[in-house]
Write a structure and sequence with these properties.
The complex is a heterodimer.
Chain A lengths: L10 E2 L3 H7 L4 E5 L2 E6 L3 H10 L1 E5 L4 E6 L3 H8 L11 E8 L5 E11 L2 E6 L4 H7 L6 E4 L5 E6 L3 H8 L12 E6 L2 E6 L8 E6 L4 H11 L5 E3 L2 H11 L43 H10 L4 E8 L9 E3 L5 E11 L4 E9 L10 E9 L2 E12 L19
Parallel strand pairs in A: 1-3, 4-14
Antiparallel strand pairs in A: 2-3, 4-10, 5-8, 5-9, 6-7, 7-8, 10-13, 11-12, 12-13, 15-18, 15-20, 16-17, 16-19, 17-18, 19-20
Chain B lengths: L5 E6 L3 H12 L4 E4 L22 H6 L7 E3 L2 E3 L7 E3 L3 H9 L3 H25 L11 H9 L2 H4 L3 H10 L4 H8 L3 H12 L11 H11 L9 E3 L4 H13 L3 E3 L4 E7 L2 E7 L4 E9 L3 H10 L5 H9 L6 E8 L10 H4 L2 E4 L3 H12 L8 E8 L5 E8 L13 H15 L3 H4 E7 L1 H8 L35 E3 L13 H13 L1
Parallel strand pairs in B: 1-2, 1-10, 2-7, 4-12, 10-16
Antiparallel strand pairs in B: 3-6, 4-5, 8-9, 9-10, 11-14, 11-15, 12-13, 13-14
Helix pairs in contact in B: 1-11, 1-19, 3-4, 4-10, 8-9, 9-10, 9-15
Classes of the chains: A alpha+beta, B alpha/beta.
Bound molecules: flavin-adenine dinucleotide.
Flavin-adenine dinucleotide binds next to helix 1, strand 11 and helix 18 of chain B.
Chain lengths: 399, 504
Amino acid sequence: MNNDLRFSALKKTPFHSRTSLASRTNKWYAWNGFTVPTEYSTIELEYTAARNGTSVMDLTPMGKYEITGGDAHHFVDYLVTRDLSEMKDNTVAYIIWCNEDGKVIDDGTIFKYSSNKFMLCCAVKIYNWLNDSAIGFNVEIKDVTDTIAALSLQGPTSCSTLKNYGANDLETLAPFEMKQFTINGYEVLISRTGFTGDLGYEIWTDPENAKSAWDSIFEAGKQLKIRPFGMHALEMTRIEAGFIQTNTDFMAAEDALRPVRMRSPYEIGMGWLVHFKKKNYFIGKKALKLEKENSTTERCLVGLDIDGDKPAHGSVIYNEKKEDIGIVTAAMWSPTMKRNIALASLRRPYGIKIKDNIFAEIYHPEEIEYRKIWAKCKVVKRQFYNPERRNKVPADLYE
Amino acid sequence: MSEKKYDAIIIGGGHNGLVCANILAKKNKKVLVCEARENCGGMVNHEIINYVPSIPNSVSQSIGGLNLKYNSKSTIALSESGKHIRLIGNQHLDHATIAKFSTQDADRYLEFHDKMSQFSKALGKFMLDSPPRIMNNSFSDYAKLFKLGLNVRMLGKKRFNEFARMIGLNIADELEDNFESTLLQGLIAHDSVLGSNLGPRSPGSLINLLYRMAVHGYSLFGGIYEMDGGSETFISALLDKCSKNNVEIKTSAVVKQCLIEDDMAVGVELNNGEKFFAKTVVSNADPRSTYLCLLGAQNLDTDVKRKINHHRSKGRVAKLSLQLNKMPEFNDCDDTDLNSRMVISPSIDYIEENFNPSKFDKLSSEPVLEICLKKDSNNNSSLDIQVQYAPYKVNGGWENIKNDYVNSIVKIISKYSSNIESCIENKTFITPDDIEQNYHVSGGHWHHGEIQIDQLFMLRPIPGAAQYKTHLDGLYLCGAGAHPGGGMHGISGKNAAKVVLGDL
Ligand SMILES: Cc1cc2nc3c(=O)[nH]c(=O)nc-3n(C[C@H](O)[C@H](O)[C@H](O)COP(=O)(O)OP(=O)(O)OC[C@H]3O[C@@H](n4cnc5c(N)ncnc54)[C@H](O)[C@@H]3O)c2cc1C
């Protein structure tokens, strides 16, 4: 890896020599201090790979923190709203964590190796938060972002690709399980996780194996529609899957300048991850309990099914009286489902009790001019796309 | 849910804990006090305390009256030249005393005293009640600190402006503006920084003096007493009340943790594993150990932990006791002087130079001293000395440097008393580290936490915990770390009891 910052402000990931070779468009963006491709070829092709073949994304910039020590299990349970007390070794859990006001800081995944060792992954950097939260716990927190190379392989043929690569019996790995493999003489951790709402895996290895892993994986996926995949295509797949994106669908509590922009888990559809019954205290519990008891939740994050085929990017949502009741946080035309979908943050009771007679004001760009469209919306489940193969064990295999 | 035998369990039988216990018990509440030490009283102990304020009426009345006798003490600022300044807290006489040095200082002294006294009264009225509780550490907390001090407003426009100007100031500037006598400057500066982590030139050192005056009858040199029979008489009186009011007391009972059920404090667990349950738990322990040990860091939100971690509570006062085999002679002093509060603090610069090394957790060679001649019941005499700027966790540890340090203190005294060395039978020296260890006070701090603008009133001990409540429902604070602060007066114990009663 090139760590010489005199020449570039952004770091290169251990896959850089490969991703830059694969990039046909030279479109890059900065993520956590690294430079990675926004798109390699066209968004449509990359999206299609994720839905019909295997998409490969460089996940290295993701914030990765190793949490070790005698209190590691207690600590992660305290850190997040979800009850992790029963979490088993070699499994992964989707988590959110809040500040003391019960406002969401970020979401991510937690990997459990053993009661004394975990890895937390999330989109942004949270070292200070983890460290301050660890006061009073016997744990050590290490930022391992730079010392672990990571790829995400998603799509129906991802299991077959990784099997060809050398991950024997991978199809028996259930969703949210992880397993250590030795492939081509090096260690690779594979977890059945992802951000596309489909069958998919994430692989984690030492940066020195990165290039060889990339090459072997593309070789293994040659007949299985493998394709590198950038941030823009990811945005499409995650909306279809109904996954939330911090600082897109809501402001991270630590980043929001205006307190009114902070969101509780109930306001972003994450109430199911708040477990008051768990044995340990967790950060934000006091505030969240009050919110629940006093029903002070103000907003909600819902899925919208919108008339027509023009994506409602940034649209304001109205009721039938033309009163402003919320905003679209993410929108797209879903090629797979042939539906005009969006995620929207609405002022309750809209979205919860009132689900009809809601309208989006869409400004559709048409060569410098905008066409204003008044489109009827229906509140639907946020998870627009959820194929059966996503959770199937053993996973589907293809020749 | 466990059966709750008590209405309140009080962790720690310091004087504030005992005051609180009595008030609750007088209202027919069933109270248990768990004290870690063999005896109650906490730092109200002859080993620690020199001079005390009188117990405020509001406190003694709330526990049914106390019959305590005080001996009023005058103050003498020792000068190597023998030109000591003797002040007794009577404006008329003190004016005359100072006039002997400087007529200008004498007049200015009256003005200065009047102004400071008014300011401390403005704060003082506020002090005797519970402060408002404010949740966020926002700018408005600080704004309200001023707004809510209606009394402060009532100073009148001119005085209010002066108050607003001075509140964050250092005492040194104010003294130098007013007085020419460096000894007088040194004396008042000493009382402004005693027990704190500030030098006379540190911003905020003025508020420390206002606090001291508020406790000592709004006076600079009046309201300073020695209690007949020593400060422990107060503790005996409180313990008498406890037995009358059926307060149950367990000594040698170290509380390991506060028991929590459904996010409520429901009792305590002792080090030996014994558990007791109650409707409320009140902690006389300092805020840091209450939060991080008793409540438990694992039960606190991150931001609360950040705040309590930043809570400043490193002690800076050590105690030296010189047991005497005969009375020492002090230059140009008579018996009355010897029985006064003797202060060795010749100038502001002397204190500041002394303070400087303490910033780096180092020792200075010429500490600032407050000396108290004591006689015990067997008529044995001792000089008990508050040694300012003896850092908690001194660089390199106390063990290796203790002896040299004690000798250097004796050497300073010998500048004022030529025969002191020959009078010493024995020496006992306790450091802030010892106080932490023996009295269960984190940092061994005089006030269980600094008296500074960001740790006062509704911000004391930390934002969100004011009004004697903690971040855990059912757990309260009643010690010096809560509003208003330390010293022997029982105000926090009394105020906490009121809040607990309101919730019971
Ligand atoms: C060096 C020094 C000199 C001082 N000199 C003076 C002076 O001259 N005049 C004056 O007025 N003030 C003086 N003070 C200040 C005064 O002593 C204190 O402010 C006062 O004693 C505080 O009273 P309190 O009841 O709040 O707490 P404390 O007296 O500290 O009592 C707290 C009690 O709680 C107990 N406790 C703590 N944790 C536990 C636990 N886990 N389980 C059970 N029990 C526990 C402790 O053992 C202690 O008995 C001095 C302080 C120091 C450090």
